[in-house]
Design brief:
Strand content: over 45%
Distance between the termini: 24 Å
Helix content: 10-25%
CATH architecture: 2-Layer Sandwich
CATH topology: Alpha-D-Glucose-1,6-Bisphosphate, Chain A, domain 4
CATH superfamily: START domain
Structural class: alpha+beta
Shape: globular
Number of helices: 3
Strand order of the largest sheet: 1-2-8-7-6-5-4-3
CATH class: Alpha Beta
Radius of gyration: 14 Å
């Protein structure tokens, strides 16, 4: 994991799951609801995903302290089982937009994820590295 000039975070990790399962975990609203959000005890309240170039997503989740967060964005590039890119905005921070790139690589029964959340700046109050690390841990648990 690395942070680049405070403007991007990158995470590269391998999941013990087939690439198709990882793709579904990012593109099927029912599966997104099982893992999204950084708080290990947080819960997704709703997930709307229109996974196609130009399609919109919106996900609302609560942390264990019951604070509510809603993120949304537009899918830019969708290549099934391989690449997903989208813009990212918090409802609580209108006008502060960043960009997510997710690359999936099959490795036998495992899947390597190369993840980048870019265009981060001082305007956002969120700690994206800690947030995505927590979300990826929840994703690993949800896949088993």
């Amino acid at each position: 994991m690395k942070i680049t000039h405070n403007t991007a975070i990158s995470i590269e990790t391998t999941f013990d799951a087939a690439i198709e399962k990882l793709w579904q975990a990012w593109t099927d609203p029912a599966l997104v609801m099982k893992w999204f959000g950084s708080d290990p005890n947080g819960k997704v309240q709703k997930a709307k995903l229109d996974v196609r170039p130009g399609g919109y997503f919106e996900i609302t989740f609560n942390d264990s302290d019951l604070s509510e967060h809603t993120c949304c964005g537009v899918y830019k590039d969708v290549q099934e089982f391989s690449r997903l890119t989208f813009s990212w905005t918090w409802k609580s921070e209108p006008g502060v937009e960043s960009f997510v790139t997710l690359l999936l690589h099959a490795n036998g029964n495992n899947t390597l994820i190369q993840f980048e959340h870019a265009n981060l700046g001082a305007a956002s109050k969120h700690n994206y590295l800690i947030g995505w690390q927590g979300a990826f841990e929840k994703l690993k648990l949800a896949l088993h």
